[in-house]
Amino acid sequence: MGGLAPEERKRLEEVVAARIGARSGGAAALTAAYLDAVERNAYARTVGPGPVPTSLTSERAELLFEICSRLERVVEDFEIQALFRVTETQARSMRKMLLATHTDEANRLDHAWSLVGARRAGRRKGAKVTGEVIVFDDEDRRNAFTAFAARTGVQVERVLGEGDRPWQVIVADDYPADRLPE
Amino acid sequence: MDAEHARDLILMAASPPFVGVWALVLYAGRTLASDVRRPGRGWMTLVFGVVLFAWFGVFLALATPLVLEAVTAEGAVEPVFVILAFTWLAVVGVLVFLAAKTKTVCRYLVESYRRGQGPWPVAWMRRWVGR
Is 0.80 topped by the overall pTM? Predict the structure, then answer.
């Protein structure tokens, strides 16, 4: 088997780390997941029983799905940009394509993604819901979480927080306690 | 009728405001008016309410015989007993207010904990307030 030489792998990690900059905490894990995914994708394309992707978009969606499965979360747009050398808009649409084509598994991964960087901020009584307050890193994550809650029947209420992270929700107590962020 | 005893009772009823109870009333009011649910604040409000209720309850137990005596007495009554009677009425009002707020405080505490969490009194309160 070929594979990358150690110095090539190191170079790849460095490039990815440089591209994702200050957010490079997970560059090594991302690179490992990427390389594993490429290998797995090649195997599945040739040996797998499923349909073969015939367009670049669906090919990329498959590869992204493999990466996400290894990371146990949906990849960030900036990570997609770093790996595939695409624009922010393309990265966003690739992520959306991934979520659309692998709905069931993607829901779980999307939920995990929505909680990245989220934190708990005590309990609060809202207009409709009383429960834990979750503060999200950005609006997309907040929206992904509320979509997940709507699909699973958990009551949530969006509230506008103060400061630099105003994207908050109050989630009812039927949301599992072990899934709440710290 | 002991006027000195009546004066002591009036002093007893009037003493909470002099020992900073207004600050605690303000604290409790703000706690209950807020959307945020913090168990510590809820327990503090409950303890404060119970202490105040007990204080005025003791006043009521001590003052009621004297007030009844003054109300049913014939002839002129000393002003101190009139003041005591009005104080007694005011304290009854405060006790009714505190009793009426009990459920609100319990609801606050229940909402401060996830279902199935919190110390045992919270489970009891949850059944009572129906949440």
Answer: no
